[in-house]
Design brief:
Layout (H helix, E strand, L loop, with lengths): L8 H19 L15 H9 L1 H38 L1 H10 L8 H7 L10 H12 L2 H13 L20 H11 L4 H10 L2 H8 L3 E4 L2 E4 L5 E3 H24 L12 E7 L5 E7 H4 L12 E5 L4 E7 L7 E5 L11 E11 L15 E3 L4 E6 L2
Parallel strand pairs: 5-9
Antiparallel strand pairs: 1-2, 2-3, 4-5, 6-7, 7-8, 9-10, 9-11
Helix pairs in contact: 1-3, 2-3, 3-4, 3-9, 3-11, 6-10, 7-8, 9-11
């Protein structure tokens, strides 16, 4: 298991547990009686839902990717994104067919996925863990997507049915499909490596045919030819889950209209520096990435809030419509009104790393994830 050593495992583990509790609840179709408790809920979700429903969806995907990277799957995730991007750029006509086919991807396998979502990474072989691995292995969607992208990427065009990978009854031959995908994605080394770990034929053949025994925490085939350690099994479970999730996240991202999300996710605005302090806004990273030039900052203004008897900064959270986000401002900024000031915008995410200076927000501590965008903004 390749864990990012800069990660504070206690912080990351706590956030990951809350993330998976929420995902399990979503897969159960969000029954009110089974909703995560206040202590287990992710506060960012409700706050973003109030701004724009798809802001919640985008952040939910981005948080999953963020946690995926902390487990050492950053190279794989980057390769999955690059594979989709390369196909979109090089073969736009074929990808039009692809995206049309996956217009609403969760509906294709939601019932299957709901039944098998939980997976354990306990350092032992348990019958339920072996069953869950086998069931995840059997979900066709991910291998089909990768096989179709492999065909497009290598110039063979859009292949909806993949008949060459199916038996006479039309059932996908998993081993053949895995070999087909691996044979064409050598240029995506991180994805290739984790696919080999995830779709381990030793595990599928022994578990799927119930031809194994467990001795001293080692899974052995009954003929004695195959041995898999518990560490190898845990690595396979994590790789399978993260590879599959990464593909699902890419399919789901395509369904989101990003235009109304420009300016969403601003968690706080502060005045920083000595002497003439300057305004700095912190924005959740997936929303920061939507508008790399932060053009929406041209719309900020200072206003008087009669209710709170204070000045506030108003930040529009959508591209031209919707309610503004008001945040209290220190009075010393008002001396800049009517002038142009350098306004900084920084991307942030929940803080789960060692040595990062965290900034407290109502929804939990955040830390900076990259460089600032600086805009000359006229305060009105």
């Amino acid at each position: 298991m390749n864990i990012n050593r800069q990660v504070d495992e206690e912080k990351a583990g706590a956030l990951m547990r809350r993330y998976w509790l929420h995902e399990k609840w979503v897969q159960q179709e969000c029954p009110i009686e089974a909703a995560p408790s206040e202590d287990d809920a992710i506060g960012w979700y409700g706050w973003l839902m109030e701004q724009e429903p798809e802001a919640y969806t985008l952040f939910r995907i981005a948080l999953g990717e963020y946690l995926c990277e902390t487990q050492g799957f950053g190279a794989m995730l980057s390769d999955v994104k690059r594979l989709f991007s390369d196909c979109d750029r090089m073969y736009p006509q074929e990808m039009m067919h692809f995206w049309s086919h996956y217009e609403d991807p969760p509906l294709e396998f939601n019932a299957q996925w709901r039944n098998i979502w939980p997976i354990s990474t306990r350092m032992a072989f348990e019958p339920t863990d072996l069953f869950w691995y086998q069931e995840k292995y059997e979900v066709d969607l991910f291998l089909v997507v990768l096989a179709q992208l492999r065909s497009i990427r290598l110039g063979s065009g859009w292949d909806e049915y993949l008949c060459n990978l199916r038996d006479s009854r039309g059932k996908l031959k998993k081993g053949v499909a895995v070999d087909f995908v691996l044979g064409g994605l050598g240029g995506y080394a991180g994805l290739h490596r984790d696919l080999e770990i995830a779709y381990d034929p030793r595990l599928r053949n022994t578990i799927g045919h119930n031809m194994y025994t467990v001795v001293d925490n080692t899974l052995k085939s009954l003929d004695g030819e195959i041995e898999v350690s518990v560490l190898e099994f845990v690595d396979a479970c994590l790789a399978l889950q993260n590879v599959q999730n990464s593909i699902l996240w890419m399919l789901s991202r395509k369904q989101i209209d990003l235009r109304p999300l420009v300016g969403c996710g601003v968690v706080t605005t502060m005045l920083l520096g000595d002497g003439d302090r300057v305004p700095v806004s912190l924005q959740l990273a997936p929303f920061f990435e939507i508008d790399s030039e932060a053009a929406w900052l041209d719309q900020v203004c200072v206003a008087w809030d009669d209710g709170d008897d204070t000045f506030v900064l108003q930040l529009p959270h959508t591209s031209g419509y919707g309610a503004a986000i008001s945040q209290p401002l220190a009075a010393d900024l008002l001396t800049a009104c009517g002038t142009r000031v350098a306004w900084s915008l920084l991307p942030v995410m929940p803080c789960i790393h060692h040595g990062h200076k965290s900034i407290e927000t109502p929804w939990g501590p955040v830390c900076v994830q990259g460089g600032a965008v600086v805009k000359e903004v006229e305060l009105i």
